[in-house]
Amino acid sequence: MQTTLAPEFHGTREGTEAEAILRKCVHCGFCTATCPTYQLLGDELDGPRGRIYLIKQVMEGKPVTRATQQHLDRCLTCRNCESTCPSGVQYGHLVEIGRKVVEERVERPAGEKAVRWLLKEGLTSALFAPAMKLGQLARPLLPEALKNKVPGKMPAQAHRWPNREHERKVLMLMGCVQPAMMPNVNSATARVLDAAGIQTLVADEAGCCGALRTHLGDVDGGLDDMRRNVDAWWPLVSTGKVEAIVMNASACGAQVKDYAHALAHDPAYAERARRIVSLTKDISELLPDLVPRLKPKLRARGARKLAFHPPCTLQHGQQLRGGVEMHLAALGFDVQLATSESHLCCGSAGTYSVLQPELSYQLRDRKLANLAPLQAEVIVSANIGCIQHLGTGTTTPVKHWIEVLDEALA
Fold first, then answer.
1. What does the alpha-carbon distance between residue 17 and residue 93 come to, in Å, rounded to a whole number?
2. How many helices (H) and strands (E) does the chain have?
């Protein structure tokens, strides 16, 4: 797509990158077929091709309007369009550039600004955990919209962490909201790895992966989160004490695997970021090594028929497909994908379910309707957002697949 950058973007990092991405787009429209918001709304400007045109206009110096901002806001950043695109357009990077520029030029209504500030500061705050505990105590009294965001009672093993020493060691990112909302995902990951002879280490100074602020248009704040994590992990990474940095939230994994790109312009962090990316693995990427170690330790009890919802950040963001299903099947589980639309987003998308609830819940219900015919004992996924969101719309238990595997271990 021919692009003529406005003078203000000439020679800038954002301008150079945006122009390179825009020039790859041939305007074929294949992406619209797999865009969740285009399927719901049928508006060209609420699909990737339309949003690319809007960002092109922004970068060429055309007027930026509130309507432009709303169309970009409605994007889930699911990156399904990237999996579909025959030209390799890096839409995810482009939309972040577009959002940053628009955020700087369009004043949001005061209410929107307040909600977005609360999300990016509150969810990453040390006060989030006590606030979540308070919410759980008051959960029966909360309105439905808030109750949906507050999980019920945690399982007894949620804080049971293995204490054995192993020669093999990995680092794990605990995440910003997961320790308070779904602590069992982290402890189950550590227990499964322990059963396979791998010790899980945690750098206490590490926090939010940076995705939350970045997706809300605070790119500089997101970069600060990334630098803090690099600094927190570097003592263990630089000395070779860990063989991998493990992610059990696929959204965090997709973000951390993008650190080298995000910090490429920073001479103090560029090389370290590349090293971090080379070590970062979704927990599913360890399954080929884990399966033979765990298989003799599995017991027959526990859910065996599973419906798997692959998060967008796993199948599109990280381009990891089929591994969870194949390796859980090798461990004796019956794992099925929805026969229709398994590639589509469930509507969670980080803070999207809070900021765009109408679209978000339509996508949730559509996803659950496609999973229902599988009649599974448990719906499993690989990202806290998907798990929490899907769980608000069904009586079928929704868990991380690592929790199910943990339950099945002797």
1. 9
2. 23, 8
Q: What is the mean pLDDT of residues 60-80?
A: 95
Instruction: Give the closest residue to 257 by CA, choosing from 239, 273, 241, 233.
Output: 273
Percent of the chain with pLDDT over 90: 83
Torsion sign (Cα): 199, 203, 204, 207? negative
Please report, for residues 313, 366, 368, the alpha-carbon distance to residue 306 in angstroms, rounded to integers and kept in the order given. 20, 18, 14
What is the pTM (predicted TM-score) of this model?
Answer: 0.92
**Encoding tokens for residue 158?**
């949620």
Helix axes 48-59, 13-24, angle to 10 degrees: 140
How far apart are alpha carbons 285 and 281 in whole angstroms? 6
* Spatial contact of 367 and 346, defined as CB atoms under 8 Å apart: yes
Q: Give 317's DSSP letter.
A: I
| CB neighbour list of residue 370: distance below 8 Å, 6 or more residues apart | 338, 339, 340, 341, 342
In the sheet that 334-336 helps form, which strands lie side by side, from edge to edge? 334-336, 305-308, 378-381, 398-400
The residue assigned the tokens 């995810």 is 92
